[in-house]
Design brief:
The chain is mainly alpha-helical and 265 residues long. The chain contains ten helices and no strands. The radius of gyration is 24 Å and the shape is globular. The termini are far apart.
Length: 265
């Protein structure tokens, strides 16, 4: 049984917990406003010029008050990167789940994931640049960033594992020796690939690299004036990269014009 003193303390404990929860919610509202303003400043001036003082001034906070919510500019940038990784991973995971639910194979799932990530990048170019653009001057990434990026790599790994288990991934004429090229953390996460796919991990890296390379080339203007159909070019870029990794994406091999007729018709 509860003692009378314990019963007397219980309401006070409940009130204290509720008060702490309310204060934490209020702090998170402020932190969300900080991130929103910081993102706009990055879009307007670039991440290299992000200033805590400028963010505080716009929020009508003193420079000292902002440090109650973020300890440094580095922490603020880290929170933006982690938030962007979460947003991107959500998009990739939803695309994968939809295709898997429709019974599509690993190749179709990867194509859908690539298209979804590209669309996210086109809609959020400054967030994409924060993740995959130029290194940020004087910024040091933390373990939170590594853990945030891991969600995307888990999507890649699931696709590759499904491709192997269902026979969709083709053995290559040459298998590269990748021993010692990845960290123990990666091997613990993915496992040691078995023949004939001992270079499984590097193939996944090739898939991902062709995806990020294709998006970056388009988003940062490297294809400007060179292509006439950005959607089609992107599909062929990621399909070519996937083909090299042993995965044949369901992309038409022939071009179809506006009338729907192919060059072979």
């Amino acid at each position: 049984m509860y003692s009378s003193s314990a019963l007397a303390r219980e309401p006070q404990n409940v009130r204290t917990s509720a008060s702490m929860a309310a204060r934490e919610r209020a702090k998170e509202v402020v932190r969300a406003r900080l991130r929103a303003v910081a993102r706009r400043h990055i879009a307007e001036h670039g991440v290299a010029h992000l200033s805590l003082r400028a963010v505080a001034r716009e929020l009508e906070m003193t420079s000292s008050a902002i440090y109650r919510h973020v300890s440094s500019r580095n922490e603020l940038i880290t929170s933006l990167i982690v938030e962007s990784y979460d947003s991107l991973a959500d998009v990739a995971e939803v695309a994968d789940r939809i295709q898997a639910g429709l019974g599509q194979d690993a190749a179709a799932r990867w194509l859908a994931i690539c298209r979804a990530i590209r669309q996210w990048a086109l809609e959020h170019p400054h967030e994409y640049a924060l993740l995959y653009g130029s290194p940020i001057p004087a910024y040091r990434a933390t373990i939170d960033v590594v853990q945030g990026s891991a969600r995307i790599w888990r999507v890649v790994t699931r696709v590759m594992e499904t491709a192997v288990s269902t026979g969709v991934l083709r053995p290559q004429s040459r298998t590269f020796d990748v021993r010692g090229l990845v960290t123990p953390y990666v091997l613990a996460t993915v496992g040691q690939p078995a023949p004939p796919f001992t270079d499984f991990i590097v193939r996944g890296m090739a898939l991902f690299s062709s995806l990020i390379g294709g998006i970056s080339a388009e988003l940062f203007g490297h294809f400007h004036g060179l292509t006439t159909d950005a959607d089609r070019v992107f599909d062929l870029v990621v399909a070519t990269g996937a083909q090299g990794a042993g995965l044949d994406l369901p992309v038409d091999c022939v071009h179809r014009g506006a009338d729907g007729r192919s060059d072979r018709d």
